[in-house]
């Protein structure tokens, strides 16, 4: 079995480890569980590295293959951007007459009657 060269591995000190999200923690737990099972049964370590990674992470073989091929191409790993709906500003919903009316009501709350 081939061992990974040092240049292939990412140092844990090269990124911020202040807090892993739930998904990362689950993946780490999956790898630990797989390695514990492999320690008891060495037949689990037979197969291609992509297949073993898929088994260890408990994710589909296609996903691991897609990530592996993008890494070989030198693509950056990025998180998908969350799309937020664009809403109209609340100010745009009112015309100047309505805004002046609201302004007058607010001023009336703070006016002192003499």
Features:
mainly alpha; 114 residues; elongated; 48% helix
How would you describe this protein?
The mean pLDDT is 79. This protein has a domain at 16-72. It contains four helices and no strands. The longest helix has 19 residues, at 22-40. It has 114 residues and is an all-alpha fold. Helix 1 crosses helix 2.
Low-confidence segments, given as residue ranges, are none
Average the pLDDT over all residues and give the rounded result.
79
H and E string: HHHH
**Main sheet attributes: strand count, strand direction, barrel closure:** none
Structural class from helices and strands?
mainly alpha
Shape: elongated
Quote the beta fraction: under 5%
Gap from first CA to last CA = 92 Å
Would you count the extended β strands for me?
A: 0
Whole-angstrom Rg: 28 Å
* Quaternary structure: single chain
Helix tally? 4
How much helical structure, as a percent, in the residues? Answer: 40-55%
Summary?
By secondary structure, the protein is mostly helical. It has four helices and no strands.
Write the layout of secondary structure elements.
Layout: H1 22-40, H2 49-57, H3 61-72, H4 96-110
Helix pairs in contact: 1-2, 2-3
């Amino acid at each position: 079995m081939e061992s990974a060269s040092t240049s292939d591995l990412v140092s844990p000190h090269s990124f911020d480890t202040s807090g892993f999200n739930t998904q990362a923690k689950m993946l780490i737990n999956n790898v630990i569980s797989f390695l514990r099972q492999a320690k008891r049964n060495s037949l689990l370590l037979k197969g291609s590295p992509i297949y073993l990674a898929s088994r260890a992470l408990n994710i589909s073989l296609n996903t691991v293959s897609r990530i592996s091929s993008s890494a070989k191409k030198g693509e950056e790993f990025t998180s998908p951007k969350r799309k937020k709906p664009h809403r109209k500003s609340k100010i745009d919903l009112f015309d100047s007459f309505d805004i002046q009316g609201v302004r007058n009501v607010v001023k009336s709350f703070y006016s002192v009657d003499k």
